[in-house]
Design a protein that fits this description.
172 residues, 6-stranded mixed β-sheet, alpha+beta, 2 helices, Immunoglobulin-like, 2 domains
Length: 172
């Protein structure tokens, strides 16, 4: 038996198997599938909540310089959900979130509440990973003082909710 052809055969077979395994492990679609599975298994959260003067796109916004706002101003609240659930059925990927907005005084008295103020509902052919939401709030009829803006995010697929707050002072 000639060892050289056998070694060559084993080397070529090993390289082809290694390259196919490597190609599978680096395939972006497989990584996306793993990410959506991890997100669906972990608790819903809000990774980012920023009060902004302008929002352009995912991760692209102009935060307010401080937490003082004038009565009558318009504020954009940019947020990024953490671990939203993705449901896969019939070759489609579905994400379904709603958001409530609540304004509280320092004494925790509710002065404004809007349930289902925002809905994020995607039904796509490929997984959606970079998800964000923007809620616009006009500070009309709010007296000067210190307030807490609370965002409550609901995941309609996994039945969970998460919240985040932003403290501010309304000035004349």
């Amino acid at each position: 038996m000639n060892i050289k052809p056998l070694c060559f055969f084993l080397l070529v077979t090993g390289l082809s198997l290694a390259s196919s395994v490597f190609a599978q492990e680096t395939d972006v679609s497989l990584l996306k599938e793993r990410i959506i599975n991890l997100q669906s298994m972990n608790p819903l959260g809000i990774r980012t909540l920023v009060a902004c003067s302008k929002v352009t796109d995912y991760g692209s916004y102009e935060p307010l310089p401080d937490n003082k706002v004038k009565s009558g101003d318009v504020i954009f609240f940019y947020f990024e959900p953490q671990n939203p659930s993705t449901q896969k059925a019939e070759g489609k990927y579905e994400i379904w979130l709603t958001q409530d907005m609540v304004v509280l005084t320092q004494a925790q008295q509710e002065v404004f509440k809007k349930e289902d103020a925002l809905e994020i509902h995607y039904l796509t052919s490929s997984p959606r990973l970079d998800i964000y939401g923007v809620y616009q709030l006009t500070l009309a009829d709010i007296s000067p003082g210190k307030y807490l803006f609370k965002v409550i995010l609901h995941d309609k697929i996994k039945g969970e909710k998460a919240s985040a707050t932003w403290a501010c002072e309304v000035v004349k």
